[in-house]
Design brief:
CATH architecture of the largest domain: Orthogonal Bundle
Largest sheet: none
Radius of gyration: 21 Å
Helix content: 55-70%
Strand content: under 5%
Number of domains: 2
CATH topology of the largest domain: Tetracycline Repressor, domain 2
Number of strands: 0
């Protein structure tokens, strides 16, 4: 954790909304985004346990009533923060996801998939989210459940396993087990280095890591 909320200047309050009637749909969306921005900042810099609804509302410059009109509580807004992170790192539509897994060349499929997955896993938001899970999951087991529920891991394992079944129908290894091992091989070391347990990888090192991981994995499967 590199910054504290007390060290960060909160921007001036926005202009007061027009009086009378409910906010427009656009205004309501902006309010929701402000609340999510505030929650993400506090979760990532203060931690889940240390963040309160009052602090989120204060930083977002909204009332608690406005907060609860949009979110049921802290687990609900954490779920929304996770959902937004996932939306940022995955392809924008299902066609994009399907295109990653298209074709009979499993080597090309895994290289495409590995680039997207590793890029997402090493994004600042994903790293910050994982830090929260590692630090606070023992106190708040619902955090890991929320990430599992909203994340892409299960989908990635299922789709990789399907690709392996399609391209290596005669393989003796369980495709679901193999897919999970592929993700571990791909993500673990680069992520540890990104956390400061070593020197973070350069772009060239990441590209080489993807190539070598896919080659090693497929040699094992074959």
């Amino acid at each position: 954790m590199t910054a504290r909320i007390s060290d960060t200047k909160i921007p001036d309050a926005p202009a007061a909304p027009r009086r009378g009637g409910r906010p427009s749909r656009e205004q309501a969306g902006k309010i929701g985004d402000k609340i999510l921005d505030a929650a993400a900042f506090l979760f990532f810099h203060e931690g889940y346990g240390a963040t309160s609804i009052e602090e989120i509302a204060r930083r977002a410059r909204v009332s608690k009533r406005t907060f609860y009109a949009r979110f049921d509580g802290k687990p609900d807004i954490f779920r929304a923060v996770v959902r937004r992170i996932v939306a940022h790192v995955r392809p924008a539509d299902m066609d994009g996801v399907s295109n990653l897994f298209a074709g009979d060349d499993i080597d090309a499929v895994l290289r495409r998939v590995a680039q997207v997955i590793l890029h997402g896993a090493l994004s600042p938001e994903a790293l910050a989210l994982n830090r929260i899970i590692i630090a606070e999951a023992s106190r708040f087991p619902e955090l890991a459940m929320i990430v599992t529920e909203q994340g892409m891991r299960a989908e990635a394992i299922s789709r990789i396993a399907d690709a392996l079944r399609h391209c290596h129908a005669d393989a003796r290894i369980d495709p679901v087990f193999a897919a999970e091992q592929f993700l571990l091989m791909l993500i673990t070391a680069p992520q540890r280095r990104a956390y400061g347990l070593g020197v973070p990888m350069t772009k060239d090192e990441i590209a080489a890591w993807i190539t070598n991981t896919v080659d090693l994995f497929l040699n094992g499967v074959r």
